[in-house]
Amino acid sequence: MLSLILVLVIIFSVVYFLGRKESSLPPGIWGWPLLGSLPASDIAMPDQVMALRKKYGDIFTWRIGMRTYIFICEYQLIKTALSKIELADRPELYSFDVFTEFNKIGIANGNGRFWMNNRRFALRHLRSLGMGKATYESVIQYEAESLIKDMQKLSGKPTELPWSINVAVLNVIWRIVADRRYDIDDEEVLEFQELINRIFKEVSPVVLYYDMLPWLPKLIPASLNKMLGVNEYFSISQQTLKRMKEVIKEHQATFDPENPRDYIDYYLKEMEAHKDDPESTMSIRELTYTLEDLFIAGSETTSSTLRWAIFYLSKHQDIQRKLQKEIDAVVDKNTLPSLKHRERLAYLDAVIKEVARVVSLLPLSVPHAAAEDTTLNGYKIPKGSVIMCCTEACHNDPKLWEKPDEFYPEHFLDKDGKLIKREGFMPFGTGRRICLGESLANIELFLFLGGLVQNFHFELAEGEDLHPKKNPKDRLINTAKPIQVIISKRKGQE
């Protein structure tokens, strides 16, 4: 009996010693050995972070499970942190790693030279294909015209915004990646869109506990994962990867290295050219994960921002009318807004940016990880720490914004109505892993929203509001909620 007690005391002492908080860490909460201090399940994570910021300051520690999280809630500190190569890794989180089959490769979830090589290739070739340039303006405008035609069917009665918004955004990515597009009501693309949407909506709480307690999956019998909802999440990831593999195989069967058609062809061409290079990380597996990254990251964020924009304009009728007046004065009613109008449509750009600021679509950004021990603001950041940058805190900082709690597009305009850049604004992140689709997303939002506001007037249906309270189930992205609006054709635009 005494020997058993002695063993338990030794085990507890070792666990306590290994799990104790170092004095050199930022202040914060630590919790119990092995468990840490788990977040509340009925309060959105960003709201919990903001409450802790009031107590501990702009940088603090929160031990969640067995992981040390460092939260950074001030713009200059975030810029400094994300410029460090030591903090450019992605952490090993079950909910992310399942989409790369638990490999740290690809763009969004890759580390080291796998990430650097893929990002470098993607930036170079997406630019050469016209991403973020006027080259793809006609592609986006074609999708805008299709979207407008679809919305005309909903005119005059309360309705939720249609899935054709998401399909229009997806089609732009499909054209760049695989030189194909789908009709608005094509069953295949609707199923694919629904699959992506489920990634953000159907996350079992057990999966999130797997993130916090990495030892937990090893204790849960495989037979229980189905009952706990983990298998469903894994199935979504496998279906997404299967779709990417099918598209790649189709390209391999028709590949002509002398006439590359799209991103996949350029990748296959360069992969072949570097097949004997030991430093090359290019492979079909890498390409599969990269395509998955482009679709998941590039579709939901843009389509959700577009939905939020319509909701905010529906609520703020004065801003919507001002925007329509600007568009009507610059763009002929028989044509859609285009990039040639952009300099004279500064208010449209300002509205888009203000939507991104107010909504903070990624309120805690995408998690980073410390690849090695480093320091920040005088504190130690240990290797393996998860770094969470609270962009929402920056977007609501009264030191940076004149009216942080209001929807005020003038935040992004000077006294002459010209568009300006603002410190503290980072909807696409910042630093070494800033979103590589930023320029494309900005053009898409400009052309899509411009075309919709030119052709329709939006208002909230009776009894609807924007539901400013966050949903605790939203894991990473502040997705637009299902709100009913009334879509009316504007006079002269029938």
For the structure shown, list the relevant keywords.
494 residues, alpha+beta, three-stranded antiparallel sheet
What does this structure look like?
There is one protein chain. By secondary structure, this protein is α+β, with helices and mostly antiparallel strands. It is built from 18 helices and 10 strands. The protein has helices spanning 2-18, 45-56, 75-82, 94-97, 112-128, 137-152, 164-178, 187-201, 205-212, 216-219, 222-228, 230-254, 263-273, 284-315, 317-330, 346-359, 391-395, 438-455; strands at residues 28-29, 59-64, 67-72, 158-160, 368-369, 374-376, 379-381, 386-389, 456-460, 484-489. Strands 1-2-3-8-5 form a 5-stranded mixed sheet. A 3-stranded antiparallel sheet has the order 4-10-9. A two-stranded antiparallel sheet has the order 6-7. The longest helix is centred in the middle third of the chain and has 32 residues, at 284-315. 37% of the residues are buried. Residues 6-18 have low confidence and may be disordered.
List the helices and strands and how they pair.
Elements: H1 2-18, E1 28-29, H2 45-56, E2 59-64, E3 67-72, H3 75-82, H4 94-97, H5 112-128, H6 137-152, E4 158-160, H7 164-178, H8 187-201, H9 205-212, H10 216-219, H11 222-228, H12 230-254, H13 263-273, H14 284-315, H15 317-330, H16 346-359, E5 368-369, E6 374-376, E7 379-381, E8 386-389, H17 391-395, H18 438-455, E9 456-460, E10 484-489
Parallel strand pairs: 1-2, 3-8
Antiparallel strand pairs: 2-3, 4-10, 5-8, 6-7, 9-10
Family: Belongs to the cytochrome P450 family.
Protein name: Cytochrome P450
Keywords: Heme, Iron, Metal-binding, Monooxygenase, Oxidoreductase, Signal
